Amino acid sequence: MAMIKFLTQFGRYFLLLRKVFSRPEKPYVYYKQTMHELLYLGFYSIGITAIISFFMGAVITLQTAYNTENPIYPTYLIGLGCRDSIILEFSSTITALILAGKVGSSIASEIGTMRVTEQIDALEIMGVNSASYLILPKIIATLFFFPILTLLSICVGILGGWAAGTSAGVITSANFIYGIQYAFIPYYIVYSLTKMFVFAFIITSISSFQGYYVEGGSLEVGRASTKAVVFSSVMILLFNVILTQLLLS
Amino acid sequence: MITVKHLEKSFNGHVVLHDISITFETGKTNLIIGRSGSGKTVLLKSIVGLHEIDSGEIWFEDTLFNKLDFKEKKKIRKEMGMLFQGSALFDSLTVEQNVRFPIDMFTDQTLEEKNERVNFCLQRVNITNANNLYPSELSGGMKKRVAIARAISLQPKYLFCDEPNSGLDPPNAILIDALIKEITEEYMITTIVNTHDINSVIEIGTNIVFINEGKKCWEGNKDEILHSDNEELNDFIFANALAKQLKKHVGK
After folding, report:
1. B positions 123-152 inside 8 Å of A (CB)
2. How far apart are CA B209 and CA B213, in angstroms?
3. Nearest to B105 among A26, A117, A119 (CB)
4. Chain A residues with CB inside 8 Å of B135's CB?
5. Predicted ipTM?
6. Which residue among A62, A202, B150, B182 is least enclosed by CB atoms within 10 Å?
7. Share of chain A above pLDDT 90, in %
8. Which tens digit of pLDDT belongs to each residue from B7-38?
9. Are B141 and B175 in contact (CB under 8 A)?
10. Is A25's CB within 8 Å of B78's CB?
11. DSSP string, A37-61
């Protein structure tokens, strides 16, 4: 029974995606909507991404420093460790998990509320492809902006690491800067951005799906919002493993 | 004209609409009345295509609507306007943007032409100086009127209203009813109104269909309804003390 339910939901998800990626009625209206979503889903996430990344970088630096307190290890390795941890894992995966909470719940509750207040029915009656009109601009906006947030997260995270390391006296500024330049592999940036690109799609499509098929009232909208965050987070973790194996092996 | 023939609709094996056949005439305010849960909203949503029907036919003039594919349905949907029970205005858009939405979506008019049409529609429903307000800043009656303005913005051939005066005080309810009737006659629209408001029945019911437990029980006009001997209809229409007195008066 649970398997049938799962397969039904899986099928509905792909049917929804087919509707989402159909030809837009009026490209200009979609363009305007995409700009709006870039602002709300992307630009307004800069603050939380920056704050989390700064403290994440700071903690990584301090923990690396306290766990490698050994005269054999040169201190610039703290900078190197901080850089690689942030680029490879934290700036994409942790930021994606945070965005699943912020953006995912917002998308599910927005679309869910539109469903229960018959705004989606109103769009359908007008002859508008509601799935495409509501979801496609969100997907385009997050696919474009979330990788930018990853780059920002990398920069702010490393800045946080430098600030914490130098102010706590565990590493000098010169050594930290040398460390973050040492043995740098540019492909790691590509890897990180690729992961975030996939995570952006997961967050937006799953959250939209949860909101689009809400039935009932405000209680169900709340539940859909929670489900959106939970399912998006689980899928992010699963795809993190898959992508790591595919891209780094 | 909209014609429904032998419409059947069920949800998870539970039959909600049973063998419904009705003709809704152009230029008339066609009312579907019935108790809460009788299937009125399901019938209306089935007619507009929001619910897939189990069997039967829905004709918009000479077109069999329920057999059309999504693209073909879209053409007819552009000729529809709908007023929902909760107004269903887009929360993130202002009054002006709400009314302009269908025009933006389906016409290539210039901004000037669009604004002219929006202002005309808003004036037609007596909304002034509210263009930049958001739905959350409007009263219930204003929301309904803005929703009517949005519904008529593309000059529809068909207007559907799901309980248009629910939640409104009597004067506002009468105002909305009158507006729907005026618009219907002025633009020769085929209008279908779902209601359980007896005032609406008396005010605007030129063609009335009574639905009870998913079946069509009675059909007539506002004059005939007061003299009907249909027991179920009388139980519904003359449910309160005032209405019972009216029935006695009419009987004399």
Report:
1. none
2. 13
3. A26
4. none
5. 0.86
6. B182
7. 88
8. 999 998 899 999 999 999 999 899 999 888 88
9. yes
10. no
11. HIIIIIGGGHHHHHHHHHHHHHHHH
Which chain A residues are closer than 8 Å to B89 by Cβ?
Answer: 119
A174 CB within 8 Å of a chain B CB: no
pLDDT of residue A50: 96
Average pLDDT in the B153-160 region?
A: 92
Question: Closest Cα to residue A224, out of A135, A121, A111?
Answer: A111
Mean pLDDT across chain B: 89
- Is residue A124 less than 8 Å (CB to CB) from chain B? yes
Task: Name the pTM for this structure.
Answer: 0.88
Look at A25 and B105 and tell me if their CB atoms are within 8 Å: yes
Amino acid in position A196: M
Please name the residue that has the structure tokens 């302009």: B100
Q: Does B214 touch chain A (CB under 8 A)?
A: no
User: How far is residue B64's CA from residue B226's CA, in Å, rounded to a whole number?
Assistant: 35
- A66 near B CB under 8 A: no
**pLDDT higher than 70, residue B109:** yes
Q: Does domain B25-53+68-251 have CATH number 2.170.150.40?
A: no
